[in-house]
Design brief:
The chain contains eleven helices and 14 strands. The chain is an alpha/beta fold. β1 and β2 form a beta hairpin. The longest helix has 18 residues. It is globular, with a radius of gyration of 21 Å. The structure holds iron/sulfur cluster. The site of iron/sulfur cluster has 12 residues, from loops.
Length: about 325
């Protein structure tokens, strides 16, 4: 496997207004590194404010970095002018949370899916028409010709998200960044869309960076997972390994919050993660999770833990594991 995308030590800083006259700095990402091999899927999971959407934008070359670099297929794209990113823009595509705002309501579905081909000057009219119909057929918006003539307001939320996927697919990208692609579609379409994305990933071999607040969907979708908290990765490793044996107290808390189906066929929500996430503008000292951590101990409010490989392939940023390298490590709880 070769590395397709490498985000190295990325930091992103925003200025946020504070009252009428003053502003403050928000470090949305703080020294975050991820790599994605060709054809691989990586889920980035966290609550809102964790920096996961900023990381998605970094992966798509849409976000200015305060520090660090982004390398795509060996090419450093950090801060590159738009003119130099043409090839990258064709090879990396995004699918966003809200299909209503990301798709032009005045264009037909066919025009929406064809637009990237026109932008990148790919094919003649007949070739483009064939590519649009093939993409619509692949996302099961059938009959494709009929769907191509519709406007997005004539479609359901799930169908609109399929249009967004077809638009991303039509360029045959090597990297797809999907930012909360199912959070705004109804529950019945959610599983279908995730299943479809996984099927297409396997068929086309594109690498997927999947951004979600729902750790349960990451389990079904990705080979590797990175859990984010307040602009940092706190745990990362193979998805099944991390979910089967979470070593960071925050990962454990996210898993405890996953709704549990009950025998009466209803979904029961479990306890959410205790406490509100602190403001990224004023992150706590020491370990950023310490005000909410049930295992916090002496020094957690001063010492800032860094990612450490605790079990083969599984890295954790938590002082409980400092110097702990035993196979089969397990956090109590
Ligand atoms: Fe909890 Fe301390 Fe580990 Fe932070 S370093 S997650 S506060 S035990």
């Amino acid at each position: 496997m070769t590395t397709l995308l490498s985000v190295q030590n990325a930091s992103v800083v925003f200025r946020a207004r504070q009252g009428l006259l003053s502003s403050t700095t928000v470090r949305a990402l703080d020294g975050v590194s991820i790599t994605l091999d060709r054809g691989e899927s990586l889920s980035v999971v966290g609550e809102s404010g964790s920096g996961k959407t900023t990381l998605a934008r970094v992966g798509l070359g849409l976000q200015r970095l305060a520090a660090g670099r982004v390398v795509f297929d060996g090419l450093d794209i950090t801060g590159a002018p738009e003119g130099r990113l043409k090839g990258f823009r064709r090879r990396a595509q995004g699918i966003f949370q809200d299909p209503f705002s990301s798709l032009d309501p005045y264009m037909t579905v066919g025009q929406i899916v064809e637009e990237p081909l026109l932008i990148h000057k790919i094919g003649g009219p007949e070739e483009r028409k064939g590519a649009v119909q093939a993409a619509l057929d692949e996302v099961r918006l059938r009959p494709a010709e009929e769907t191509a003539a519709k406007f997005t307001h004539q479609l359901s939320g799930g169908q609109r998200q399929r249009v967004a996927i077809a638009r991303a697919l039509v360029l045959k990208p090597e990297l797809i960044v999907a930012d909360e692609p199912v959070s705004m579609v109804d529950a019945s379409s959610r599983a279908e869309i995730l299943y479809l994305m996984r099927e297409l990933q396997e068929k086309h071999g594109a690498a997927f960076l999947y951004i979600t607040h729902d750790i349960a969907t990451a389990y079904h979708f990705s080979q590797r997972i990175a859990v984010m908290y307040l602009g940092r990765i706190v745990e990362t490793g193979p998805t099944r390994q991390v979910i089967g044996n979470p070593l960071h107290p925050y990962t454990q808390a996210l898993l405890r919050a996953v709704p549990e189906p009950d025998p009466a066929n209803r979904t029961r929500r479990r306890a959410p993660v205790e406490g509100e996430p602190p403001s990224p503008a004023h992150p706590p000292s020491g370990c950023r999770f310490h005000p909410r951590c049930p295992y916090a101990f002496e020094g957690c409010d001063r010492e800032d833990p860094r990612l450490l490989e605790v079990v083969a392939g599984q890295e954790v940023a938590c002082r409980l594991w400092k110097g702990f390298e035993e196979e089969g490590a397990r956090l109590p709880g």
